[in-house]
Amino acid sequence: MSHIRPDFPEPYGLPVDGLRGKTSIFSHPVYLFLREFSLQDSRGGSLSKKAESLSSGKITIGTKEKVIIINELRQCHPLSQLLVIADLPRSTFYYHVKRLNAPDPYQLVKQVILRIYHQHKGRYGYRRIRLACRNESILLNGKTIRKLMKELGISSLIRRKKYRTYRGEQGRTCNNLLKRQFYADRPNQKWVTDVTEFKVDGRKLYLSPIMDLYNGEIVSYNLTERPLASMVKSMLLDAVEQLNKDDKPLLHSDQGWQYQMPRWQRWLSDNGITQSMSRRGNCLDNAAMESFFSTLK
């Protein structure tokens, strides 16, 4: 090992394409290991011990990364010694060097994937990107699309969990008295209500309205930053103030926790309002309110 240079000069020349970017070769663990080896070898160190350290798993690195670094260091160090230290067969090294220098066969496909990804604001995962590529006559399987997205460093955004008022049995539920009869003969005969979530300027806002099925008018509403019981109470009291003496409306909602509260049911009873609830998991039972939210959003 005496022919190894005692000094370890910085490699000259331009790095290969795989190293262009933010990461410097001189901070890479294999480079640091090789540098340490060269310095210690000049002091009488043993190559076998260093190679054993590298192959023992103390430094975890893939074959491609080894090839990239060795290809750079070979400019000033014997290739045979570098391959021994990295525990890399010569044939494997030349195979990967050839692949590194070859043009990327998926370069145009990657451009299409990036365009589709940004066009849909990062909401598309590999399945929908695959379908979008197919519409542009690019036929690739999902595994390939997923691999290319990983190489590009992109992934679909995690969909935020939709706000749901239902939290299980929180109190007493009521029968569905409305039965999807979304019409009324007169004002204040049938009301519907629900709570929905909005995101405005990075803040979550919760809207709770009451709608009259006679003409689709919003009788009252409340908009707050937290879906508390006080939100629906304030909304209800505002609506009650608009009732005539003989008005006894039916108020329909889903099975949200707010509407299962004994307090809510007592407020309805005290004001002569009959409660009705959708069946669990049947959003169509309150389709009039859901349609209003959809149009509003």
Automatic annotation (TrEMBL):
GO terms for biological process: DNA integration. GO terms for molecular function: nucleic acid binding. It comes from Shigella sonnei (strain Ss046). The lineage of its organism: Bacteria, Pseudomonadati, Pseudomonadota, Gammaproteobacteria, Enterobacterales. Gene3D superfamilies: Ribonuclease H-like superfamily/Ribonuclease H (3.30.420.10). Residues 183-297 form the Integrase catalytic domain. InterPro entries: HTH-like_dom, Integrase_cat-core, RNaseH-like_sf, RNaseH_sf, Transpos_IS3, Transposase_IS3/IS150/IS904. NCBIfam families: transpos_IS3. It comes from the Bacteria. This is IS150 ORF B.
